[in-house]
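Example complex used in Figure S2.
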Amino acid sequence: MAARTANQHSEFLILPGGKILAHNITPAMAKILSELDPDDEPMRRRANPKIVSKNNELPS
Amino acid sequence: MICTAPEKIFAPAQSRPALARERARIAHELLADCHLCAHDCGVNRLAGETGLCRAGADAHFFSAQTEVSDELELMPVFSVALSGCDMRCDFCITGKESWNPRSGDALVATRGENAADLLRRRGVAATQLAEQAKSALANGAKTIMVLGGEPTIYLPAALEFVSHLPADAKLIWKTNAHGSAQARELLDGIFDVWLADFKFGNDACAERLAKTPNYVRVVRENLLWANDHSELIVRHLLMPGHVECCWRPVAEWLAENLPDVKVNLRSGFWPAWHARRHGELASQISTGENETAFGLARELGINLIQ
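Predicted assembly (366 residues):
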Protein backbone atom coordinates (compact mmCIF):
# COMPACT_ATOMS: atom_id res chain seq x y z
CA MET A 1 0.00 0.00 0.00
CA ALA A 2 2.92 2.25 0.71
CA ALA A 3 3.98 1.79 -2.87
CA ARG A 4 0.60 2.91 -4.12
CA THR A 5 0.71 5.93 -1.86
CA ALA A 6 4.11 6.77 -3.27
CA ASN A 7 2.67 6.47 -6.77
CA GLN A 8 0.23 9.35 -6.48
CA HIS A 9 -0.09 11.13 -9.77
CA SER A 10 -1.72 14.07 -11.49
CA GLU A 11 -1.68 14.91 -15.18
CA PHE A 12 -1.64 18.35 -16.70
CA LEU A 13 -1.25 20.09 -20.01
CA ILE A 14 0.37 23.49 -20.32
CA LEU A 15 -1.00 25.43 -23.28
CA PRO A 16 1.16 27.86 -25.29
CA GLY A 17 -0.64 30.80 -23.68
CA GLY A 18 0.27 29.60 -20.23
CA LYS A 19 -3.11 28.15 -19.30
CA ILE A 20 -2.79 24.86 -17.40
CA LEU A 21 -5.35 22.08 -17.75
CA ALA A 22 -5.18 19.36 -15.11
CA HIS A 23 -6.97 16.25 -13.94
CA ASN A 24 -6.52 13.69 -11.19
CA ILE A 25 -5.45 16.61 -9.05
CA THR A 26 -4.07 15.53 -5.70
CA PRO A 27 -4.17 17.90 -2.73
CA ALA A 28 -0.42 18.46 -3.08
CA MET A 29 -0.75 19.31 -6.77
CA ALA A 30 -3.67 21.65 -6.04
CA LYS A 31 -1.45 23.57 -3.63
CA ILE A 32 1.26 23.91 -6.28
CA LEU A 33 -1.21 25.03 -8.96
CA SER A 34 -2.76 27.49 -6.52
CA GLU A 35 0.63 28.98 -5.73
CA LEU A 36 1.40 29.30 -9.44
CA ASP A 37 -1.75 31.37 -9.90
CA PRO A 38 -3.01 32.82 -6.61
CA ASP A 39 -5.87 34.53 -8.49
CA ASP A 40 -7.32 31.18 -9.55
CA GLU A 41 -10.19 31.07 -7.09
CA PRO A 42 -11.47 27.57 -8.00
CA MET A 43 -7.98 26.13 -7.55
CA ARG A 44 -7.58 27.94 -4.26
CA ARG A 45 -10.74 26.26 -3.08
CA ARG A 46 -9.46 22.88 -4.21
CA ALA A 47 -6.20 23.49 -2.39
CA ASN A 48 -8.14 24.27 0.76
CA PRO A 49 -11.00 21.77 0.71
CA LYS A 50 -12.09 22.44 4.29
CA ILE A 51 -13.12 25.92 3.18
CA VAL A 52 -15.05 24.36 0.32
CA SER A 53 -17.03 22.07 2.57
CA LYS A 54 -18.40 25.10 4.42
CA ASN A 55 -19.06 27.20 1.35
CA ASN A 56 -19.54 25.29 -1.88
CA GLU A 57 -21.77 27.62 -3.83
CA LEU A 58 -20.80 28.79 -7.27
CA PRO A 59 -18.80 32.01 -7.37
CA SER A 60 -20.72 35.00 -8.69
CA MET B 1 -32.27 -6.11 -24.01
CA ILE B 2 -31.57 -3.44 -21.47
CA CYS B 3 -35.18 -2.34 -21.44
CA THR B 4 -36.38 -5.74 -20.26
CA ALA B 5 -37.03 -5.75 -16.53
CA PRO B 6 -34.86 -8.45 -14.96
CA GLU B 7 -36.11 -10.91 -12.42
CA LYS B 8 -35.44 -9.87 -8.84
CA ILE B 9 -32.31 -11.73 -7.87
CA PHE B 10 -31.77 -10.70 -4.29
CA ALA B 11 -33.57 -9.42 -1.25
CA PRO B 12 -33.11 -5.84 0.00
CA ALA B 13 -33.07 -4.58 3.62
CA GLN B 14 -29.59 -5.70 4.64
CA SER B 15 -26.77 -3.46 5.82
CA ARG B 16 -24.79 -2.06 2.92
CA PRO B 17 -21.63 -4.09 3.53
CA ALA B 18 -23.67 -7.29 3.78
CA LEU B 19 -25.74 -6.35 0.74
CA ALA B 20 -22.62 -5.55 -1.26
CA ARG B 21 -20.99 -8.83 -0.23
CA GLU B 22 -24.01 -10.85 -1.37
CA ARG B 23 -24.29 -8.93 -4.62
CA ALA B 24 -20.59 -9.31 -5.31
CA ARG B 25 -21.10 -13.05 -5.15
CA ILE B 26 -24.09 -12.88 -7.49
CA ALA B 27 -22.31 -10.51 -9.87
CA HIS B 28 -19.34 -12.85 -10.05
CA GLU B 29 -21.60 -15.73 -11.04
CA LEU B 30 -23.26 -13.55 -13.68
CA LEU B 31 -19.90 -13.15 -15.43
CA ALA B 32 -20.59 -16.60 -16.87
CA ASP B 33 -23.13 -14.89 -19.14
CA CYS B 34 -22.09 -11.27 -19.03
CA HIS B 35 -24.77 -8.64 -19.57
CA LEU B 36 -23.39 -6.00 -17.23
CA CYS B 37 -23.23 -3.28 -19.87
CA ALA B 38 -25.57 -2.36 -22.68
CA HIS B 39 -23.42 -4.08 -25.30
CA ASP B 40 -25.16 -7.20 -24.01
CA CYS B 41 -22.38 -9.55 -25.21
CA GLY B 42 -23.38 -12.63 -23.21
CA VAL B 43 -19.83 -14.00 -23.12
CA ASN B 44 -18.57 -16.33 -20.40
CA ARG B 45 -15.88 -14.24 -18.74
CA LEU B 46 -15.30 -16.93 -16.11
CA ALA B 47 -14.22 -19.26 -18.92
CA GLY B 48 -11.87 -16.73 -20.50
CA GLU B 49 -14.20 -15.36 -23.17
CA THR B 50 -14.15 -11.60 -23.65
CA GLY B 51 -16.63 -9.17 -25.10
CA LEU B 52 -16.18 -5.69 -26.47
CA CYS B 53 -14.58 -4.47 -23.22
CA ARG B 54 -12.02 -7.32 -23.38
CA ALA B 55 -12.30 -7.68 -19.63
CA GLY B 56 -11.71 -11.02 -17.98
CA ALA B 57 -12.99 -12.11 -14.61
CA ASP B 58 -10.44 -10.35 -12.43
CA ALA B 59 -10.37 -6.58 -12.04
CA HIS B 60 -7.30 -4.36 -12.17
CA PHE B 61 -6.96 -0.80 -10.93
CA PHE B 62 -4.58 1.89 -12.08
CA SER B 63 -5.07 4.56 -9.46
CA ALA B 64 -6.08 4.76 -5.81
CA GLN B 65 -5.48 8.13 -4.23
CA THR B 66 -7.09 11.16 -2.66
CA GLU B 67 -7.99 13.82 -5.22
CA VAL B 68 -9.52 17.29 -5.25
CA SER B 69 -10.43 17.60 -8.92
CA ASP B 70 -14.02 16.42 -8.71
CA GLU B 71 -17.14 18.38 -7.75
CA LEU B 72 -16.51 20.75 -4.85
CA GLU B 73 -19.29 19.24 -2.77
CA LEU B 74 -17.73 15.78 -3.01
CA MET B 75 -14.07 16.47 -2.42
CA PRO B 76 -11.61 15.51 -1.13
CA VAL B 77 -12.39 12.18 -2.77
CA PHE B 78 -10.55 8.91 -2.31
CA SER B 79 -10.77 7.60 -5.88
CA VAL B 80 -10.24 4.04 -7.02
CA ALA B 81 -9.94 3.82 -10.81
CA LEU B 82 -10.57 0.38 -12.30
CA SER B 83 -8.92 -0.44 -15.61
CA GLY B 84 -10.94 -1.21 -18.73
CA CYS B 85 -14.09 0.22 -20.24
CA ASP B 86 -17.00 -0.85 -22.43
CA MET B 87 -16.78 2.32 -24.52
CA ARG B 88 -14.00 3.33 -26.88
CA CYS B 89 -13.86 7.11 -26.67
CA ASP B 90 -11.02 8.22 -28.89
CA PHE B 91 -10.52 11.30 -26.71
CA CYS B 92 -10.32 9.35 -23.44
CA ILE B 93 -8.10 11.13 -20.95
CA THR B 94 -7.04 7.75 -19.52
CA GLY B 95 -7.08 5.83 -22.78
CA LYS B 96 -4.06 3.69 -22.04
CA GLU B 97 -5.65 2.32 -18.89
CA SER B 98 -9.27 2.46 -19.98
CA TRP B 99 -8.69 0.49 -23.16
CA ASN B 100 -6.59 -2.14 -21.38
CA PRO B 101 -8.47 -3.98 -18.65
CA ARG B 102 -5.25 -5.54 -17.38
CA SER B 103 -3.48 -2.23 -16.81
CA GLY B 104 -2.25 -1.59 -13.28
CA ASP B 105 -2.48 -3.91 -10.29
CA ALA B 106 -4.87 -6.80 -9.90
CA LEU B 107 -7.65 -6.15 -7.42
CA VAL B 108 -8.00 -9.53 -5.84
CA ALA B 109 -11.36 -10.60 -4.54
CA THR B 110 -11.22 -12.62 -1.35
CA ARG B 111 -13.45 -15.48 -2.35
CA GLY B 112 -12.13 -17.89 0.25
CA GLU B 113 -8.50 -17.75 -0.81
CA ASN B 114 -5.79 -17.99 1.76
CA ALA B 115 -2.80 -15.65 1.96
CA ALA B 116 -0.70 -17.89 -0.28
CA ASP B 117 -3.35 -17.78 -3.01
CA LEU B 118 -3.48 -14.00 -2.83
CA LEU B 119 0.27 -13.80 -3.06
CA ARG B 120 0.30 -16.14 -6.05
CA ARG B 121 -2.19 -13.91 -7.85
CA ARG B 122 0.16 -10.98 -7.26
CA GLY B 123 -2.51 -8.45 -6.52
CA VAL B 124 -3.88 -6.09 -3.93
CA ALA B 125 -6.70 -7.57 -1.88
CA ALA B 126 -9.98 -5.69 -1.81
CA THR B 127 -9.59 -5.61 1.97
CA GLN B 128 -6.22 -3.85 1.63
CA LEU B 129 -7.66 -1.26 -0.72
CA ALA B 130 -10.56 -0.72 1.67
CA GLU B 131 -8.08 -0.14 4.49
CA GLN B 132 -6.40 2.51 2.34
CA ALA B 133 -9.79 4.13 1.75
CA LYS B 134 -10.59 4.10 5.45
CA SER B 135 -7.24 5.69 6.18
CA ALA B 136 -8.02 8.41 3.62
CA LEU B 137 -11.36 9.06 5.33
CA ALA B 138 -9.59 9.36 8.66
CA ASN B 139 -7.22 11.88 7.08
CA GLY B 140 -9.89 14.18 5.69
CA ALA B 141 -11.34 12.55 2.58
CA LYS B 142 -15.06 13.26 2.45
CA THR B 143 -16.16 10.58 0.01
CA ILE B 144 -15.01 7.39 -1.70
CA MET B 145 -15.40 7.10 -5.44
CA VAL B 146 -15.27 4.02 -7.64
CA LEU B 147 -14.59 4.87 -11.27
CA GLY B 148 -12.74 3.66 -14.33
CA GLY B 149 -12.32 3.22 -17.14
CA GLU B 150 -15.81 2.05 -16.41
CA PRO B 151 -16.46 0.25 -13.14
CA THR B 152 -19.68 -1.39 -14.34
CA ILE B 153 -17.71 -4.05 -16.21
CA TYR B 154 -16.09 -5.02 -12.91
CA LEU B 155 -19.11 -4.95 -10.67
CA PRO B 156 -18.03 -8.03 -8.68
CA ALA B 157 -14.78 -6.32 -7.64
CA ALA B 158 -16.43 -2.95 -7.03
CA LEU B 159 -19.07 -4.53 -4.82
CA GLU B 160 -16.49 -6.60 -2.98
CA PHE B 161 -14.54 -3.41 -2.29
CA VAL B 162 -17.67 -1.70 -0.97
CA SER B 163 -18.42 -4.66 1.27
CA HIS B 164 -15.27 -3.84 3.26
CA LEU B 165 -16.06 -0.13 3.66
CA PRO B 166 -17.85 1.47 6.60
CA ALA B 167 -21.63 1.40 6.22
CA ASP B 168 -21.85 5.15 6.72
CA ALA B 169 -19.14 6.19 4.22
CA LYS B 170 -20.45 8.39 1.42
CA LEU B 171 -19.89 6.42 -1.77
CA ILE B 172 -19.85 7.70 -5.33
CA TRP B 173 -20.39 5.63 -8.45
CA LYS B 174 -18.66 7.40 -11.33
CA THR B 175 -20.00 5.89 -14.52
CA ASN B 176 -20.41 6.34 -18.25
CA ALA B 177 -24.11 5.49 -17.71
CA HIS B 178 -23.90 2.72 -20.29
CA GLY B 179 -24.71 -0.09 -17.88
CA SER B 180 -27.53 -2.60 -18.24
CA ALA B 181 -30.72 -3.05 -16.24
CA GLN B 182 -29.02 -6.00 -14.59
CA ALA B 183 -26.15 -3.81 -13.45
CA ARG B 184 -28.55 -1.23 -12.09
CA GLU B 185 -30.31 -3.85 -10.02
CA LEU B 186 -27.00 -5.00 -8.58
CA LEU B 187 -26.15 -1.39 -7.73
CA ASP B 188 -29.48 -0.44 -6.20
CA GLY B 189 -28.97 0.91 -2.69
CA ILE B 190 -25.18 0.60 -2.74
CA PHE B 191 -23.91 4.04 -3.77
CA ASP B 192 -25.09 7.37 -2.38
CA VAL B 193 -24.25 9.40 -5.48
CA TRP B 194 -24.22 8.49 -9.14
CA LEU B 195 -21.79 10.76 -10.96
CA ALA B 196 -22.73 10.02 -14.54
CA ASP B 197 -21.38 11.19 -17.86
CA PHE B 198 -23.72 12.26 -20.64
CA LYS B 199 -21.07 12.65 -23.32
CA PHE B 200 -22.94 12.67 -26.62
CA GLY B 201 -26.20 14.28 -27.66
CA ASN B 202 -26.81 11.95 -30.58
CA ASP B 203 -26.05 8.37 -31.60
CA ALA B 204 -24.01 9.32 -34.66
CA CYS B 205 -21.35 11.09 -32.59
CA ALA B 206 -21.34 8.24 -30.07
CA GLU B 207 -20.76 5.68 -32.81
CA ARG B 208 -18.10 7.72 -34.57
CA LEU B 209 -16.13 8.83 -31.51
CA ALA B 210 -16.78 5.99 -29.05
CA LYS B 211 -17.93 3.01 -31.11
CA THR B 212 -21.05 2.83 -28.99
CA PRO B 213 -24.44 2.22 -30.63
CA ASN B 214 -27.81 3.16 -29.11
CA TYR B 215 -25.98 5.51 -26.79
CA VAL B 216 -28.60 8.17 -26.14
CA ARG B 217 -31.43 5.78 -25.23
CA VAL B 218 -29.24 3.80 -22.85
CA VAL B 219 -27.82 6.83 -21.07
CA ARG B 220 -31.19 8.50 -20.68
CA GLU B 221 -32.60 5.30 -19.19
CA ASN B 222 -29.74 5.08 -16.72
CA LEU B 223 -29.94 8.72 -15.70
CA LEU B 224 -33.67 8.54 -15.03
CA TRP B 225 -33.16 5.41 -12.96
CA ALA B 226 -30.23 6.88 -11.04
CA ASN B 227 -32.18 10.01 -10.25
CA ASP B 228 -34.96 7.87 -8.77
CA HIS B 229 -32.64 5.65 -6.74
CA SER B 230 -29.84 7.91 -5.50
CA GLU B 231 -28.45 11.39 -5.73
CA LEU B 232 -27.45 12.12 -9.31
CA ILE B 233 -24.85 14.49 -10.71
CA VAL B 234 -24.49 14.64 -14.49
CA ARG B 235 -21.25 15.58 -16.18
CA HIS B 236 -20.83 16.80 -19.72
CA LEU B 237 -17.40 17.44 -21.16
CA LEU B 238 -17.60 20.13 -23.79
CA MET B 239 -15.85 18.99 -26.95
CA PRO B 240 -14.68 21.34 -29.69
CA GLY B 241 -17.14 21.30 -32.56
CA HIS B 242 -19.79 19.48 -30.54
CA VAL B 243 -21.64 22.22 -28.72
CA GLU B 244 -24.60 22.19 -31.08
CA CYS B 245 -24.75 18.48 -31.88
CA CYS B 246 -23.94 17.17 -28.40
CA TRP B 247 -24.29 19.73 -25.62
CA ARG B 248 -27.46 21.37 -26.90
CA PRO B 249 -29.54 18.16 -27.08
CA VAL B 250 -28.10 16.96 -23.77
CA ALA B 251 -28.96 20.26 -22.11
CA GLU B 252 -32.44 20.40 -23.61
CA TRP B 253 -33.20 16.85 -22.51
CA LEU B 254 -31.91 17.49 -19.01
CA ALA B 255 -33.92 20.69 -18.74
CA GLU B 256 -37.06 18.87 -19.76
CA ASN B 257 -36.62 15.56 -17.95
CA LEU B 258 -34.31 16.20 -15.00
CA PRO B 259 -34.79 19.93 -14.43
CA ASP B 260 -33.33 20.02 -10.93
CA VAL B 261 -30.43 17.65 -11.42
CA LYS B 262 -26.96 18.99 -10.72
CA VAL B 263 -24.88 19.35 -13.86
CA ASN B 264 -21.15 19.88 -14.09
CA LEU B 265 -20.37 21.36 -17.49
CA ARG B 266 -16.66 20.86 -17.97
CA SER B 267 -14.60 22.89 -20.38
CA GLY B 268 -11.18 21.35 -19.82
CA PHE B 269 -11.11 19.15 -22.92
CA TRP B 270 -7.72 18.38 -24.30
CA PRO B 271 -6.88 16.21 -27.32
CA ALA B 272 -5.79 13.09 -25.44
CA TRP B 273 -5.30 9.52 -26.63
CA HIS B 274 -6.59 9.12 -30.22
CA ALA B 275 -8.47 12.43 -30.36
CA ARG B 276 -6.42 13.62 -33.32
CA ARG B 277 -8.02 10.93 -35.45
CA HIS B 278 -10.90 13.39 -35.59
CA GLY B 279 -10.05 16.80 -36.94
CA GLU B 280 -12.42 18.75 -34.75
CA LEU B 281 -10.96 17.17 -31.60
CA ALA B 282 -7.39 18.27 -32.27
CA SER B 283 -7.63 21.38 -30.12
CA GLN B 284 -9.19 22.74 -26.96
CA ILE B 285 -12.67 24.17 -26.69
CA SER B 286 -12.68 27.75 -27.95
CA THR B 287 -13.63 30.75 -25.86
CA GLY B 288 -16.62 31.36 -28.12
CA GLU B 289 -17.87 27.79 -27.82
CA ASN B 290 -17.42 27.92 -24.08
CA GLU B 291 -19.50 31.09 -23.82
CA THR B 292 -22.20 29.64 -26.07
CA ALA B 293 -22.38 26.46 -24.01
CA PHE B 294 -22.66 28.19 -20.65
CA GLY B 295 -25.10 30.71 -22.12
CA LEU B 296 -27.31 27.86 -23.26
CA ALA B 297 -27.14 26.32 -19.81
CA ARG B 298 -28.26 29.57 -18.22
CA GLU B 299 -31.00 30.02 -20.82
CA LEU B 300 -32.40 26.56 -20.07
CA GLY B 301 -32.09 26.93 -16.31
CA ILE B 302 -29.62 24.11 -15.95
CA ASN B 303 -28.55 23.62 -12.32
CA LEU B 304 -24.82 24.05 -12.83
CA ILE B 305 -22.32 23.12 -10.16
CA GLN B 306 -18.55 23.18 -10.07
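Strands of chain B lie at 59-67, 77-82, 105-108, 123-125, 143-147, 171-175, 193-197, 231-237, 262-266, 303-304. The longest strand of chain B covers residues 59-67.
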